[in-house]
Amino acid sequence: MLKPFLVLSAVVLFVIAAPTPAPTLAAGRMPQEAAPTPASTNPVKPTPASQEKAKDLYARDCALCHGDNGNGKTGLAKDMGLTLSDWTDPKKLANKSDHELFDAIRKGKDKMPPEDPSRAKDDEVWNLIIYIRGLSKDQPAAAPPADAAKPGN
Asked: How far apart are the two ends of the chain, measured CA to CA in Å?
């Protein structure tokens, strides 16, 4: 009985906290300078300040489902029936370009809502991608298999 109430409360809080969408441009398109091209790479150079802002953005808009450390194992994700990628594993994002990640964040994907431009500017989303990719760098190296650690093998 408590879990459904908590999930409902979280969803209501998210809806209430979301700002009113900014007026859209003709045909609902982003300005040309904001729309990344498929061949584009991440145009921002991270700084300690921009990464701190990205960390705050992640905590505010992403961690509820993706987890504080990016492993995707949260109660909300489980309750929603979601299986999210474990971003602490560097292989999970290796085949995704920054543009693909930008597109998924900006437009949304499956049950993930889009990140509205009024909540995060494009450069903040690009910095968020750098922050997300960095989640795997903080993980300890995997321990060698048990039999590989034995002398004489």
From this structure: 54
Q: Give me Rg for the CA atoms of the chain.
A: 18
Domain that holds residue 60: 52-138
Q: Alpha-carbon distance 77 to 65, whole Å?
A: 5
Residue 10 lies in a domain: no
CATH number at residue 105: 1.10.760.10
Alpha carbon distance 95, 46 (integer Å): 21
Categorize the per-residue pLDDT at 147 as very low, low, confident or very high, splitting at 50, 70 and 90: low
- Nearest Cα to Cα of residue 67 among 80, 56, 58: 58
Query: For 83-140, how does the pLDDT look when each residue is reduced to its tens digit (9 = 90+)?
Result: 999 999 989 999 999 999 999 999 999 889 999 999 999 999 999 999 999 999 866 5
In a domain, 152, yes or no: no
Reported as type and span, the H/E element at residue 6 is helix 2-17
